[in-house]
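S1.2 Input.
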Amino acid sequence: ALVLPSSMAGREPHVFPPGFRCLYAEDEDFLRMALGATVFHPLNVPYDECEDGAQVLERLLGEGAAHLSDEDLRATRPHSWPYHVVILDNQMTTLDGKETARRLRLAGFKGDILGLT
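S1.3 Output.
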């Protein structure tokens, strides 16, 4: 169960701005389900899931993005980003959270990136 600080008792739940979206990457099925059930759903956070960093890059930058060079990533910069926050497991198969975050920044992502371990 999600435990909120006593300072939040009786307060209205946080309302995210219209269009707010979160992308969450975790390679373990159980942990993906657990974070959704204990954090995202109780707080009404709209989110999508990926299984690893390669899927994150491909979802945000297009097919083949996981294999782009640093130079190509810098040139890829989309006009808009569909997510405000990207949450990454630090230790994923294919492409870990730290490398995924580095590549997102190279491509111009200015939103928040959170690493979980």
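S1.4 Remarks. The CA atoms of residues 26 and 55 lie 10 Å apart.
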